[in-house]
Amino acid sequence: MTVQTPSIDTLVVGAGQAGVAMSEHLSKQGVPHLVLERSRIAERWRTGRWDSLVANGPAWHDRFPGLTFASVDPDGFASKEQVADYFVDYARKIEAPIRTGVEVLSVVRNVGRPGFTVQTSDGTYDALRVVVATGPFQRPVIPAIAPTDTPLTQVHSADYRNPEQLPPGNVLVVGAGSSGVQIADELQRAGRQVYLSVGPHDRPPRGYRGRDFCWWLGVLGEWDAEVMRPGKEHVTIAVSGARGGHTVDFRRLAHQGVILTGLTQSFEGGVARFQPDLVENIARGDENYLSLLDAADAYAARNGLELPEEPEARIIPADPACLTEPLSELDLTKANVTTILWATGYALDFRWLQVDAFDANGKPKHQRGVSKEPGVYFLGLPWLSRRGSSFIWGVWHDARHVAEHIATQRKYLAYYDTPTN
Length: 421
Ligand SMILES: Cc1cc2nc3c(=O)[nH]c(=O)nc-3n(C[C@H](O)[C@H](O)[C@H](O)COP(=O)(O)OP(=O)(O)OC[C@H]3O[C@@H](n4cnc5c(N)ncnc54)[C@H](O)[C@@H]3O)c2cc1C
Fold this sequence. Notes:
globular; FAD/NAD(P)-binding domain; alpha/beta; 5-stranded parallel β-sheet; oxidoreductase; 8-stranded mixed β-sheet; monooxygenase activity; flavin adenine dinucleotide binding; binds flavin-adenine dinucleotide
């Protein structure tokens, strides 16, 4: 009996940085493949982010090993357009077989023969393997507490572009990870009164003793941490490359005019209520900040590094009024708040992937990207193999592992020449 073999060996869905990295490693392993991208290469960097966004990491760090940024100083921060252009250039350099403008609509395992049937906006494809590279941040999430019956404008950070986009008036920014804190800063500088609702967060120093925090996290092994520390599941990381890069300091933001609040708890009758956790959240953020300075000092001492001392990095500014007497509620009308900006993160969306690769909560089941469903692979998910997995440099290393796994499978099959997965 002859087994009908799918025409495509490995189909990669998505051509963001994950899809491009995957293509590079598949090519290196000699694996025939095709990348399908519903829009353009690195589309999310172009149109899924606000106008002024720059990379959180310096250009020497937030890149793939095979190419430097042509027009960005290595210690500078690439704009979102420069990041997108970088991946377009990279794809060209490695001659990645990417077909843009093709959306994958469904993936279903074939019955009685190997591989998957892939329905797309460009017809049906048949693939032996599918690599899911559709991003760590797919569907913007607005929590259920969002007021429904209100004239307020409500915008998720994924749809925020610039201050002019928002109606005149003040803004409540909910969420103070890298997105929320940068958007709050931008709005305040544009003349808005901003209320920033701050939850648990880490806030590494931008730099310390002459080295960027990306370097410190690297040498301290933090990017390679394989599991999130218990209790850190809902902790955001507040860093910024904006305005040449600076340490996120909530007290400084408050002294600049931003009013900090605790986590947003509810909205009722035009009044926002906040949890009494602001002081604790700020204190924990300080702890995280200072612990990285301690770890950096210990590393420098252990290795005899003669880095310039930086005692001023340990000076914590005085508590602003919003911290000594935190708001428990805010009458949004009286405060002339016309916009709620939700910087509350993203969820995954795999409705199109109709295979047995998920747990009861809909989370992908995999080991370092190799799914429990043979022939299905995930790439670019947060903590796929380690802390760096959803970031530019980290996904490149995960892609290498996935490509090696695929190449090994192909070698097994080639030995007996049996096309199955
Ligand atoms: C505001 C923000 C700032 C960030 N800044 C940094 C930073 O400075 N440094 C850093 O390292 N990381 C940063 N990240 C994290 C990460 O690098 C980005 O989220 C990056 O876009 C992830 O790349 P990806 O290829 O995994 O996913 P994406 O960029 O999301 O790419 C996935 C691609 O898949 C396509 N796609 C999705 N579904 C389908 C389908 N069904 N069919 C076909 N195509 C499909 C999409 O169009 C998209 O192009 C940031 C994230 C955010 C949200």
